[in-house]
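Task card 7
Instruction: Convert sequence to structure tokens.
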Amino acid sequence: MKKVVGIKFKSSGKVYDFDCGAFVLCQGDCVIVQTEQGLGFGTVAIAPVPFEERPTRKPLKQVFRLAGEKDFLKREKNIEAEKRAHNFCLKSIKELGLSMNLFSVEKSFDQSKLTFFFTSEGRVDFRQLVKMLVKELGARVEMRQVGIRNQAKMCGGIGRCGRQICCSAFLEKFGPVSIRMAKEQNLSLNPTKISGQCGRLMCCLTYEYETYLSLKKKFPKIDKTIKMPAGKGKVIRHNVICNRITIRLEDGREIETDFDDLTKEKE
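Output:
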């Protein structure tokens, strides 16, 4: 029976589907797989399941073999080579006076290619830098400029909630986040309180957004005038989680009441 297994190449990276073949794999196993760039070292993130449970239109690459001792040693050598390449690149960037922030280097498992990840406010002419890197490191070099959110995902960190940042822990791709999401949830619009380590709006603002929209449908809109036993007043605040609204009466008093109780009074 054909089985599909989910493989990760980075701890915070995307999960890719591969053909399990005849291998018996468990979550956490290290494997060597066939990729478009050659053989790659990955970790089983999702245990094998029958193809019918995770169908895909794309042809699946094969799991080549289980990772052995030589593969782990090769991986350690690659990590050391990445550190040396990172230090040399930083030195070269400083010498050339380039406006770029290098934050990560990755070496392909077959040791033929080095990828340098950086952020920058604008375009960077790094042609001379590439020549210096190729001459010193003796491998193919790719310079990849990414966004600030991708940098946070690759570098990881701890969020203001005290937990590992979501993009680094489990998010596979970034969704759109807007200031409206914070407004709908009655959150402080202070940028320092609703921004993540990347400086952009926190991804977690999207998690409860749809719930708030759904709960708010039954509430009267802000500034709507409604009648109460105590008199007429305008709705000034919603507390959808506690199912309460705050009303300012014509005499200036503010009354907070349960929305269901208000509905019963009208009936």
